[in-house]
Batch of 4 targets.
Target 1
Amino acid sequence: MDKKIYSVSEITQTIKMLLEQSLPTLWVEGEVSNFKEHYSGHLYFSLKDSDAQISAVMWKSRAQFSDFPLEDGLQIRALGNIRVYEKTGRYQIDIIQIQPAGTGKLQAEFEILKKKLYQEGLFAEENKKPPPLFPQSVAVITSPTGAAVQDILQVLKRRAPYLNIYIYPVKVQGIGAADEIANALKLANETPFIDVIIVGRGGGSLEDLWAFNEEIVARAIFMSQIPVVSAVGHEIDFTISDFVADLRAPTPSAAAEMIVPAIEDVANTFNSLNSRIIYALNSYLEYKKQRILSIKNSYGLRRSADIIRQNIQRVDDLAYRLSLTSEGLISKNKEKINQLKKQLNNLNPETILSRGYSITFKSNKIVYDASDLKKGDILETKVYTGKVKSIVD
Amino acid sequence: MKKEIKFEDALNKLESIVEKLESGKVDLDESIKVFEEGNELIKLCLGKLNQAEQKIKKVSQDSTGDIKLEEFE
């Protein structure tokens, strides 16, 4: 019996042929470990799962076209060929192309969609609609059985007991969730009088929140004519919905807080408007009143009264002056009369007699010329007091 | 679902009324009229706040695509 003795090279060559020819180019999924980037630019690592591992290499010529950074622990899908490396007798997968898988896959898809929608302008500030200050009707798109809806209702009940709340029950995770959410967004836009929409859910894993990273949801939010507040998971969770929405709330409760002012604030606003409008009317009326008063007191209106008063005064003045004049006249005349009286007095013969003069009569005629007299005439002489009879000698 | 005046609209209306009154560019009759209008709006809004009855409805679509409202428990 002939024994076929293989050399190491021959058997390795046989294994290489068997392996490389029977295994076509294939996809394999596993976790990256022992990752090393060689200075030459080639990438060396292992792909493993819980039970096995396989060596992997990605040559620089291919690695340079991959924008997906590798690291230990990452779940990836690799397209490649199984190759046997004769020198060490080991086989490895020669990777042509890699894709993220598992969480890494979602993360990468997230980044890709985010970039795409960003470039399309779905996140642009100028497309964001500010939510109304005082909504009266709010749409809540979420699971009817989750904690989120209860959180939202609780806050709204406290802050805005006047609010109309419309719940749009949807699946928030799993197959069909994204479609339901997108459809509810459309439905809310068809419901009359909705002022603002809250879309969201409580916290969960990246996979749980995934519906809010789907393109269909992002586009439905973008298309909404009504302002949308995105409230997905916790403070640290960011979803595509958050970027597209008009407002991002860190949690569902916070979304409820953000969309309505507390009832006291609303009441205050209206109360202050109430005082303002009353004050405005009062000031207005006061202003009109002042104008009427000022017209009433205006020079024009006062002028006629003034003319009358001035004339009265003028009459008074004239009367006064007149009185002054007549009085003057009287006193002046009195003086003259007195003067005349005095003069008259002086002319009174009695007055002359009082000074020692006398008047001599002959036969009751005043004697002016002594030559008119002859011896024996009887004269009568009047002195101041009494008469004297005498005979011419 | 009756169409009611929205707080937002009431607020805008009130702002313009107050500004009108404050500017004094209205005649007397007009000023009384707008004041009364404003007063009504404020009463309406404050009244609405104080009614305090929150209505919670569940919205869905029936098979024909019409909007359906139900009580939400």
Target 2
Amino acid sequence: MEPLTPQRLKELEEVAARVRARILLAVHHAGAGHVGGPLSCTDMLVALYFHILNVDPNRPDWEDRDRFILSKGHSTIALYTVLAERGYFPLEELFTFDAIDSRMQGHPDMTKTPGIDMSSGSLGQGLSPGLGMALGARLLGKSFRTYVILGDGESQEGQIWEAAFVAARYQLDNLTAILDYNGLQQYGWRNAPGEHMFPPIENPAQKWQAFGWRVIETDGHDMAQFTAAVEEAQTTRGKPTLIIAHTVKGKGVSFMEDQYDWHARVPTQQELVAALAELGQSDLLVISQGGD
Amino acid sequence: MMTTYSLGKPNQDIVAETLLALARQDRDLIVVTGDSRGSGKMTAFGEALPDQLVEIGIAEQNLVGVSAGLASTGKKVFAISPACFLTARSLEQIKNDVAYSDNPVKLVGISAGVSYGALGSTHHSLHDLAALLAIHNIDIVIPADNFETYHAILAAATHPRPIYLRFGKRPMHHLHHSETRFQLGKAIILRSGGDITFIAAGETVAPALFAADSLEQRGISCGVISMHTIRPFDVEAVINAATTSRALVTVEEHSVNGGLGSLVAATLMEAGVWLPFKRVGIPDEHTIAGSQVEIFKHYGITPEGLAETALNLLNGSRGNRFPASASATASRPAANPPASV
């Protein structure tokens, strides 16, 4: 991996701001979709696809590419947007999000969309195929690495822990899971007003360490810190790594941040205008109105 | 004179032997097991080719997900687990990670049907065909004997799509002549007959064949089809049987709902072919526990039981609401037979 220079970091941050704006534009245009989760994993996806992953947009099926799985598939508009920005398909296609017969359906489909390594959508299923890919790399004698972004909500699914158990058993140090730890799920645990709000999963570090994983905690919105965490994972030997990325659901738009309400809410025209202004991307709004 | 059939091995033994032989020649062939190396007869495989066997432990959902990921890297993956768990516990992983994602995993359901009969309903797989038939992009194969098993595994190894194969654990009779050819999606006509034809699959083909032999002794002309591939379904074989026989009986080690019998019935209806018809299988009731032999006997999946069913059907004593003459003048198939399922 190339060193992340201050100049490069600035470029990535600009890409991330653009990606956030395009996510909101696409969801607004579709009149449906998730917002909070995509914004929470945007910076990590940008860092992965623009700096970390060994991929080639012109050869999405290149057999030596690094693999990526978005296990929290409902955040796929963020992945589509990053893939489009990276050149896998035209940016205009993002406006077909959720439309009939589009390649941009509500959850990623590896048979349809260039750059998608694994379909997802049913929560808790993504780590197992990631484990299979990491095993495949080892059996094939290939050096590609596999990355899986997990949601904290889907960590309640049992299959995640089946896979965690076996990945450690096989000492798969070519497998990195990334927990998008934004602390909010769609409804969450019931609690009385004013009581402690329990996150979807408490003490994930303790749990994953107990399963035999190396655990690194990082700020999931600080791309320099996140990249350093991935580098550490890459040099870890003998065990898989979980990066706990502390994130904010709805990150980047003040009135969406940390709000349950924005898990899957469509911004109004007024909210869209305000959000793009905050992101410094109002110029994208003008462009999109033509096709709106 | 009654034909005699020699006894072979359990189909699962043939699966294990064939996979080992193939894997010795092909390093990309990987077997994934879920603490079922013993029951899947894969112990020898694991000892001979330790790098080509991945043990996942008792976690079927993970087993299928891992197999899909492995297959996506180009490996030829045979995921082996008891059929009852493989197609129920991990049905969602089969649907999403294998079929929908088009990762060509070869799912091998062992001790299928009521092979684990005495262990109770938790261990019966009488739902697997119905469940998988409702999922697009997974072919389904139920070999009847060692010959069909050997060829089904060979075919699966190079099959470009997801596929599910289902096997039992009891030694099976050799049912085929040496000149028989096996082709996925193409039913094998074991014998033809103008009075009645049994369309059977898997371990119910043998009792159907023995029933046909005994009926022939009584002057009833009897056909038997081994419908080893449930998907893609050999519509033509069904229509041919229905238009050359006076009655049809389907036989399966599965619920009568949603499996072979349902598929044959739907095929006939859509083709506009009407004739006396009976589904034999496990009825919609709390299934009894017992050995596979005992359960088959209980539900009439025996040479005697099937012969009786055939005679009753031909004699119209099952309250068939079609006049006897209707069967003799069964309508011709539609000009455009329905597309294969």
Target 3
Amino acid sequence: MLGLETVPGPVEAAATVGLVLVESFLLYLGYGAVTAAVTPVVVETIEED
Amino acid sequence: MELFGLGLLTIGLFVGFGLLIGILFGFFGMGGSFLVTPALLVLGYPAKVAVGSGLAFVFGTSVIGALRHRDLGQVDYRLAGLMVVGMTIGIEVGSRAVFLLQAMGQADFVVSVAYVGLLAAVGLFVLRDARTADGDGTASGLAGWIRERRLPPTVRLAGGVTVSVWVVLAIGVAVGVLSGFLGVGGGFLLMPAMLYGLGVPAAVAVGTDILQITLSGAYGAFVYAQQGAVEVPVVASLLLGSALGARIGAGATHLVDEDDIKGYFAAMLLAGSVAVASKELGGAYDIEVLSTLSVALVFGASLLVSGAIVVAAVGALRRASDEEPTTAR
């Protein structure tokens, strides 16, 4: 899956862990930017309801 | 239509489940992995894959948590380092036990039974904690006893506590065995161990806990990935949801009293225990309705508790705005 199964064990394992790490960093940064922009609007909408 | 071997509906299911788990993790600071592994077991993934993917998910989620705690100075690096050494040994032992059981064809059954017991035990503990207004200090005697074990060398921890290095390593090994065997991060065991057992301040216990879970989660994921037991698309989908959920859950902590939700959390853990037992019985006796019940229990309970957190947070926001207008205008 994702082309990783052709790589030997330890390399595949390190690539898998690295992939999870990179995704986590990207999600942390991406969602950080999105929530910073969206949170005030959402909170205001809830408070106005 | 399929993406990386998973159907779009399945991906949506994992993202949604990740969102719910993220809300729970962000709010309670624990509860990520020991819901994911049973959920994967219930969905029919082999025990080895369920545990390995659970550990990889723990790693990803704790990376996100650790980034937040990094700048707050809530980490005792000496304690985290010792815990990682102990947990690495423990994870090696726990994972070898799973691989051995897998070779004997017993892994699914043993891991499931262990989960039933663990979820029930933790669920009952949280339920008792929720019913007693003051749950602190119950283990202060234990902390004192542990601190008196001055087998050299000793180490000075945050909060001015001095303990034997061997005690810290022993706690790390014990939690590591469970982590490697069940695919859990160990936060729900390490937190009380550091707080009550070692007497470390609560804020430092949380930060140190998350940092060492990041490191031990990475090692655990690496060990299982070497066996091809980490389903990357599953982990990626879960993280996609949990990273957002964790932000929602963390935001809710400023609005909702944790004690108001603890009872729901305990019920969710107990439901998880019943779900895994139901799945095992359904499989053993070929009773379809029990397998269906197990899926409904895991997802339903997660939805109920994370929904309760969001509803309580929205209610708190509205109450706050209702109290403000007269002075604001």
Target 4
Amino acid sequence: MELLYNPDSMPEEEVKATFVARQWLVDELASLIKRQPDGAGVQHILIIAPRGMGKTTVLLMAKFAINDGNLSKRWHAVKFPEESYGVYDLADFWLEVLNIVAADTNDEQLQKQVDDLRSSFPVNNDLQEAALALIKDWRRKHKKRLVLLVDNIDMILEQINDERDEARLREVLMNDGAMMIVGCALSFFDEARSYEKPLYNFFKTYDLAKLKFEQIQELLLRRARLDGVENFEETLKANKTRLRVLEYFTGGNPRLVLMLYRVITQSDISEVHRGLEKLLDEVTPYFKAKVESLPAQLRKILDHIARVSSKTNEGLTPTEIARAVRLTANQVSSQLKRLADMGFVRSANLRSRSSHYALSEPLYAIWHQMRFGRDARERMQWLVDFIKAYYDSEEMGAESQRLEVRFRELLAVGRMPEAHDVLDHHRYLADAMDDPIVRAGAIDKLVRGYIEVRDVDILRKEVLSGLDLRALSYWTLFTLYEAGCITDHEIVLSDSTVPLSDEVQQRVEAAKSLASVRAALSAKRFVDARQHLDRLILLVPNEPVFWVAHGFVRHNLGEREAAVASFDRALELDQGDAQIWAMRGKTLKALKRFEEAIASYDRSLKINDRQSPVWLDRAAALDALNRAEVALESIDRAIEVDPASSDAWLARGESLSEADRKVEALASFDRALDINPDHHKASLMRGTMLWVLGQSDEAVACLDRALQIKDGDPNAEIVRVHAHLMKAGIIMYQGNLVSARSEWLESLRSLKPEHLDYIIESLSEILFLFAEVAELTVVRELIAEAGLDERLFPMARAIDYILSGDEALIEKLSPEIRGIVEEIVAKLRSAANQTEPKQKKLPPTEVRSTKQVNAGKTTSGKRRRARRQLN
Amino acid sequence: MISSRVGPPVRGEDFFGRDAFVELVSEKLKGGSVLLAAPRRFGKTSVMYSLIDRPRWNYQIVHADLQHLIEPAELITLLVVQLAKCDDGRLTRIANGLSYFPKKFWSGLTNKLEEIELLRIKIKLREHLRPRWQEAGEELFKRIADSQTTVIFILDELPMMIDRMARSESHREDAKTMLRWMRALRLSPNIENVRFLIAGSIGIGRVLNELGEISAINDFEQLRLEPFSVKMGTELLEQLARSHCLPLSKSSKRKMLDLIGPPIPYFIQIIFSEVAKAYGQDGKPINPKTVERIYREKVLGVDCVTYFDHYYGRLRDYYRPHEEKATKKILRELAMIGHLTRDTCAQLYKREVGDRKNIEEFNRLMTDLENDFYIRFNSDANQFEFACKLLRDWWLRHYGMEADI
């Protein structure tokens, strides 16, 4: 990228490949060199153009033209470097010529002669003549004349600053014929334009005009071809309007065109920024010196034009300027002429006297902006204005997102400098955005980005200044607070503080509370979270998200009615948020207000029907209302939205198994496990379904796999217990009492006491299952071994009663408990009458063959029991 | 085919339209020394080179460009060296015969010694001549006188050398001495075969005035480089157009000459240059209307300001403050009205200078303005007018309406 601004360092092929618009000048120079007379009368050339217009490149091309063709037989090109700070008099100038020739031709002897000159000729005038004599000797020896390609010749002559030296230079150039000068300058400088100076009108001048539209296109095409940018020609064809923007912003200045080329081909704004900073470094001494040499009045006028036109991109009339700087219009007109003569300003519309004056050099305008801009935004206003003009808001939004993603990627791998660059790029983009919502989002991300890269400095210096903090999210406000960029009352800038408005102070307080809420929620401290949220909604009662959080917390605290009220409040503020409706539905479902829950889900899905989890929740609510068909439709919608949701396939399997569509159910469980082989519940359900379908061995294998799954999900433990219990049941039915008992005990071994409540019903169900195939004494032993006498008291008492026949065991019970025990007794007796003998039971298929009706019931009962274990 | 050249002297076929003038100079040199008068860039050096390239009668030329010199010893050294380098054996023998002429230099020249070695010798010669330059100069001119060969010393930029010396405390007296010495030399009855042709980028009259040595050149015949004839001006345009492959109609050429007024070659070059640029950039055919537009926008505009702005600036630099004001007033009126009688100019002058009014000073001022090529006196109409229309248009455009600062 640097090379774009340093053509001297570019490979020759690259210079040639990207050279546009000036070939006519190079051809003319070559033709002129060819026709130069011997001796006196050599024509010397001056190329005048502002910075970045391609002067150095023209000199390089002239050098190539000389070296590549026949001219090299009679001429040697001597290309001066872009800056010649070491040339302070004519002697230095001639010595520099000799040094370059010696280097170009690897002439060590010449170099030695040059080095010896200073000591041989201590008097400066004599040294000058000696250096010139050595040049003439070189010429005679090699039979070649020299073309001196002198960049910034005005600077050199200014450094020389000696009339006698200039007179001698003129004399040599005019009368000797040994050398031709092709010089470049930023303006028609004093030494060449002042009547009294020796070099007055001595050079034939060429101005490098700004690039026309077609030439800009050509330049971009050539550059893109060289960079291997694909389809650029098509891009250009499709974006003529944007190219006009480019033309406008660059003023046809090739260097600026190439800078913005980086923006449009590689979105490389950071590099352009660096390029502009570098440019600033380069041109500051020059522009500063130029401006400081002006009388105060001229400086005032120039400064005013620079400031205003950089904002408005328009010229100013003398009257307008006069009003602003408090001079008469006549005075200003006269001064403007002087400024125009010096090349600072240019006038347009000269037909009448209402001329408009603008800065003549786009680079000067940019320099002025960058140097005197009050803040970072102002300093890069040119770049921001370009982005604004070049991209539409949709593209800016897309680019903003892309940059955010890129930033996160770079941050994740620790590539901090590049992450920084992306942030800078994003900052200019944000400044260019007109859409306030998109802009607020971008700024929000930016602020957090800078905090994440720990660049609080930039935030204080360049981002926070003038930023409307009200547009920032609470979380971003809090991060600013934590980073020390804002306090409870102030914004802390790099060099000052700015008080916060009341509104923002309140937002800061809210942000702090919100942070506390987050911390509490992360740690599942719902009580703390609720306290902070109570405060938060007092501070900011009209923020829907806080009410949603409030509802969520209350739901988790079991305060479900209150949770619904919070969601209702959130919905008053924002009816259009699908998530709020969904969360409300979930809480209503938990309250078993299924109709209302379904209505809430329906509202959510009306806003956004692409929410798979909501379709599933709706299905569960419908299922609770025994609307299985509609529930299944809901599940199918969930799958349509998210075919890769294992939960959805699981739900489908459960629903189908409820509808006795066992094979389809199994297929659904299989699908769930295809998607997520570690899905506990799906494994369990599959195992259960396999058993129901009479594939006991496969069922056990499946359950064993379920038990292998290592999962951090707390529910996994419960699922594992169920799996053990299911295995126990299957093994019991297979007649293996010992293994069944072992599974039973294993299930309880891994059960945490606090989870007993979740599993107690399933334990009961399994015991009923055991009762179908085993003696009641066995069942009673299992209860005792598990230490569940108290938790399963009704069943334990019922079995004791059946085994002993002692009425007193029931009569002593309270009427309520007695009723339960009697129910269990009836069930146990019914189970006990199912088959004989008790220790073993034939597999379900065999049962069907011998007791078809019962087998069906039994199968259904198993399925129901299996499902109940898991709900 | 001629080409448009800016800066260097034009030679060979590029030297156009001045044959008659060169003949005149050549004739005048037969009888005495000549001073070429014209503003900068008007072609004085080109005239000199024409005399060098094509001698008109039997003379030898020693050409020296003096613009960087600051002491008489440098002048004598340069003249001696130039003499020694001449192709003509008679001149080289003169140089070689000088008592102070280094033999090494002579053998160095003949043996094609390196320039740097020759320089060492020249430096020694200069050092040797510094305390005795008059003596050395007299010997030089005596030897020339004895040789019977007519030698014309073409001293380009002598005024610049004198001016530099005059502005230097340590060389000011040397300047006066040198001028007087040269005059004495020219007027010596013993030296009849030496002529001088001098010219300079700055007016020698003003320099000598400053030095108090105005009489130092009263033996020179002053020849002014006048504008071309219309025919010659047209021919010049044709040649330029041909060499630049620029199709230029008769009417366009006529228009160009009409716009600039008297066909001063330098101004013809300027307007042609702008027309050629416009054609090169736009590629559109040139017609009188385009020419007029280019004249108004470019030639009279900021693009060409350097060609004319010095006319305004010099009033501040070279004229006394009260004269400056009066001069600007006169020139503005001249620009607006076109011509003024002497009396009218005098009235304007008196109004500006107030109590300091002095008719002699007014007359001198008007003479200075003529000498400096601002104005000329039209003896037919008995009125003053601008020296050329272009200058008048330019003055009217930039200084015709606003107040002076």
